[in-house]
Amino acid sequence: MSEIDALEARLAALTDEDLSRGLDLFRAKLGGAEAAYLQTCVRCGLCADACHYHRTDHELASIPAHKLAQVAAVFRAHFTAAGRLAPGLTGARRFDRDMARAWVEAVFGRCSLCGRCSLNCTTGIHISAVLKAARGALTEMGLIPPDLLQVVTTSLETGNNMGISRDDWLETVQWIEEEMQQDVGDPAARIPVDKQGARVLFTVNPREPKFFPLCLQASATVFHAAGEDWTVASEGWDLTNYGLFSASPAHGGAIAANLMASMDRLGCGTLVIGECGHGFAAARWEAAEWLQKRPGFRIVSFLELMEEYFQQGRLHVDPAKITERATLHDPCNTVRHGGIIEPQRAILRRCLADFVEMTPNRAENFCCGGGGGQLSMSRYRQKRLQSGGVKAEQIRRTGARLVVAPCHNCIDQLMELNREYKLGVVIKTVAEVVADALVRTPAQPLEEHHGTIAR
Amino acid sequence: MDALRIGVVVCGLGAGGALALQAARARAYGRRPLYAPAAGSAARGVLYAFGPGMSPTAKESTRTHPWAYALGVAYHLGVFAAFGCLLLLLFDAAPDPAGIPARAFGVLLFAGVLGGLGLLVRRYTTAHLRGLSVPDDAVANLLTTGFVALAAARLRSPAAEPALLATAMLLLCYVPLGKIRHCVFFLVSRRHLGRHFGRRGTFPLRH
Lengths: 455, 207
Hints:
In chain A, helix 18 crosses helix 19 (343-351). Chain A is mainly alpha-helical. In chain A, helix 17 links the parallel strand 3 and strand 4. Chain A has helices at residues 3-12, 16-29, 32-37, 52-57, 64-79, 81-85, 87-90, 97-109, 116-120, 127-140, 146-158, 166-184, 207-210, 213-226, 243-246, 249-266, 277-291, 302-311, 343-351, 381-387, 389-398, 408-420, 430-437, and strands at residues 200-203, 230-231, 270-273, 298-301, 326-328, 355-356, 402-404, 426-428. A 4-stranded parallel beta sheet of chain A has the order 2-1-3-4. A 4-stranded parallel beta sheet of chain A has the order 6-5-7-8, sandwiched between helices. In chain B, helix 1 (3-27) packs parallel to helix 8 (161-174) and helix 4 (66-90) crosses helix 7 (135-156). Chain B has helices spanning 3-27, 42-50, 60-63, 66-90, 100-125, 127-132, 135-156, 161-174, 182-199. By secondary structure, chain B is mainly alpha-helical. Chains A and B meet through helix 3, helix 5, helix 7, helix 9 and helix 17 of A and helix 1, helix 3, helix 4, helix 6 and helix 7 of B.
């Protein structure tokens, strides 16, 4: 049975008991904030253009207020007196199979949880927080796209979301270490593994060892140049956490516990989250809430750490080494949800001769379309690529040939957009740009492995 | 105090009580303790949400829809002015129609009526807004705009007073049922939004 059919089959098989349980699950996801958000919308419609889905498909169902309305309708019908008294007047609707299907479509199919609508809501509704609560309830009802759930399951079963074995991981680290030694001309350069008491534990998106090891090499090169006391872990090294996208605290907490266990085991002082938007938001903001425990160590983005190195004079770069026009993509989970807004800009201004901002940028930037777990939900692929048209146009307008994206999910989406919209750009992480611009080390420029420059 | 005025007071107390109850019920859903250390200031986020964050330039949605924003502001000014007039009437202190206060009220009320009608027209002439709308949108707008228009009429003629008071009663009875309850939930939601993005260091927004 295909992934699509499996979800449809589950929808079709919903019983009254399932729906009733779903309502209980949904109610349990709501706090005072969400309960207020659900009663605030005035349907002014000004959020419509804030959404990259609506900007590209112009469908009513893609308007954030409409997505919110699907959830609010159920809330009204079941949890408010007005909704029970006058459902027709207020648009209240009982939670039945059709509404469950509408929820799936709204919160998985037409939303990347980017939060741009929240910032643009005239009444101050954190729309994506409400949609996330609905996602959580659907997940616990089993109404989650199976391929998204599979990523979570793989993480839970193997410790990383790509099922990379411990041996493969360590072999890749060793290979990259050798490559780095050649690049920096220092046979003593190391990628330490399980170094007890290291100042910094660096965590990685499995996409790096699996497909793009040069990203890991770039990060290692930066650590080497900065003279950092760092390590990676042999276990619990994966920074990704698709519990953020399934919106299940049980998933998120269990996955986040891997990183926390690595920190405890190695006794490091700072947990550094590599360039991954959702991974940062999950570890920095959500893990403590899922685990209901304040971390006993600092959790920072690699972007913050690199900027600290610059400020401390530990990294030296020559912007003349990268002369092509470059722009920066702001991942939603790093910037809007994560609050890491300026460090990456400060770094790139140092490293690039011709850096231009997209319009809009920072917290107002558009989602690339790959957020919210969209990359793993094959049934929505066309919609995802279509919604990425906004980002493609943003990039095109800058005239940049190099797009810097401090997020691996974004990079995957941007690579697809590069092909789909024939952008002719190269896409790199911030660490790759820094490594390319370093002057202390004799490193060769990293290959343009994320795309091709159309010259 | 005549029966209509007593009716308005009773409906007003009822609306206030119902809104307070709704807000308390929402609050009863609970506030989870937050464990992740803050990166920014929740208080600054709230200040931003109620201050610069409400300016027309702060959000793309209002920057790119200045007319809708202006209509909304005019509408709300008119509604506040109409409630001001209503309060004065309840205390037998209707302003002198020839005086400056009445003229100032008149300007605000006129703007409010234009704003309300403008938003109503916009709602039903814009395809996506029509699609979003439920009957509550029309009822809430017509009741409120009618109330503002009758407040303006009362400034000119005491003969409009019974109609104004009757409409005020209807409006106050309707407030907790439909979207007008955003008069309370707007404040609650904006505060939560400000706290959330303030803690994370996203608010105040930098452009």
